[in-house]
Backbone:
């Protein structure tokens, strides 16, 4: 059942549409003019709106403009007895969900309601998914060390400067990269990541630049690489210190020329990609050992962000523990456990070689094995 607002200056149309919709078990409110409709929309929640176009004082198109300012995602179905293609196109451009001509056809109305309902459900699911993603990649903590990183992120996000993120395994380098992307002008465009350490050296070029059909034995069809997929957005090269020297040379050329070539092709493809790289290695030492190109290092390291280890921000452990308690409990669909101050103090005394990732694993273990209120004893037993 949907809650529907019908706005029409003709009483007979309002009543007919109300009767039809209520017969289909929808809840219906009516308004005889645009001003009354706007007032109802400001004070009540509706799933969709049917609105006449030709009305005195405020016509339907003007009302549509105002409604889109108040309820951006609410589906608005325009209805008119004086329909023409120009009016329909204008209504859709402004943001109408659909356009129906009078006399109203029952089947068309019901199909439109179903489509509008499906859209509303899809939007709600998308928003919930985005909320979960935002929560997953949220940077938790207020320590001086972390706030320093957040400050750099805020400054660098609005630029297209290349960023090199350094730090030990498990410190949250990907979170930093995603925060930079989400706060940049490229946020609505792709964020593509590739773990350079996880791809065999013989396949890394294909993963980065794509390949043509027949370029090598298993290349059964053309494939776009990460650079193409990230076009307009951000490409995150994680663990770049593990990339082969041959691949490094091609990445360098791509950064210099802003073009790439698929494996098996001489054709150059222009790409507009912001590069963020990360590593747990000391790249200056890698350069000394001839394992990393110095010219690529200087291309990547316009801005260097060092992510602190958990041992350097132990004051964040309480916030992180509570965050993971909620997140993991929700994933397991179980009541959220609490954690005592003594347990938090015990966690602060540990040596966190695995950093945030290790802490999350410990909290998951404590949720499974510990008491409802996790104690210092639980930490000593299971952490």
Residues:
């Amino acid at each position: 059942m949907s809650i529907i607002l019908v706005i029409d200056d003709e009483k007979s149309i309002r009543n007919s549409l109300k009767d039809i919709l209520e017969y289909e078990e929808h809840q219906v409110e009516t308004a005889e003019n645009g001003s009354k409709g706007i007032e109802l929309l400001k004070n009540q929640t509706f799933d969709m709106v049917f609105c006449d176009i030709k009305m005195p004082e405020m016509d339907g198109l003007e009302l549509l403009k105002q409604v889109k300012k108040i309820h951006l995602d609410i589906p608005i179905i325009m209805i008119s007895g004086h329909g023409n293609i120009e009016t329909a196109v204008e209504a859709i451009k402004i943001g109408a969900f659909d356009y129906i001509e009078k006399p109203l056809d029952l089947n068309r109305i019901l199909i439109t309601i179903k489509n509008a309902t499906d859209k509303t459900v899809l939007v709600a699911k998308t928003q919930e998914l985005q909320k979960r993603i935002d929560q997953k990649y949220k940077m938790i903590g207020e320590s001086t060390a972390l706030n320093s990183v957040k400050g750099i992120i805020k400054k660098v996000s609005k630029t297209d400067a290349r960023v090199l993120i350094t730090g030990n395994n498990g410190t949250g380098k990907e979170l930093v990269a995603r925060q930079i992307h989400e706060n940049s002008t490229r946020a609505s465009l792709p964020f593509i990541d590739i773990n350079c350490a996880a791809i065999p050296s013989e396949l890394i070029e294909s993963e980065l630049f794509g390949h043509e059909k027949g370029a090598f034995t298993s290349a059964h069809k053309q494939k776009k690489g990460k650079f193409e997929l990230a076009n307009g957005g951000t490409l995150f090269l994680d663990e770049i210190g593990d990339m082969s020297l041959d691949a490094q040379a091609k990445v360098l050329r791509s950064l210099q020329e802003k073009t790439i070539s698929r494996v098996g092709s001489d054709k150059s493809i222009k790409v507009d990609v912001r590069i963020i790289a990360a590593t747990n290695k000391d790249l200056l030492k890698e350069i000394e050992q001839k394992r990393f190109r110095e010219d690529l290092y200087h291309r990547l390291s316009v801005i260097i962000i060092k992510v602190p280890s958990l041992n350097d921000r132990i004051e964040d452990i309480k916030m992180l523990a509570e965050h993971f308690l909620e997140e993991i409990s929700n994933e397991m669909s179980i009541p959220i456990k609490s954690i005592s101050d003594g347990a938090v103090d015990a966690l602060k005394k540990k040596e966190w070689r695995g950093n945030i990732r290790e802490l999350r694993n410990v909290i998951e273990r404590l949720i499974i094995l510990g008491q409802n209120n996790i104690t210092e004893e639980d930490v000593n037993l299971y952490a």
About this structure: The chain has a mean pLDDT of 91. Residues 106-136 form the longest helix (31 residues). The two ends are 50 Å apart (CA to CA). The chain has three domains: 3-133, 144-308, 311-382.
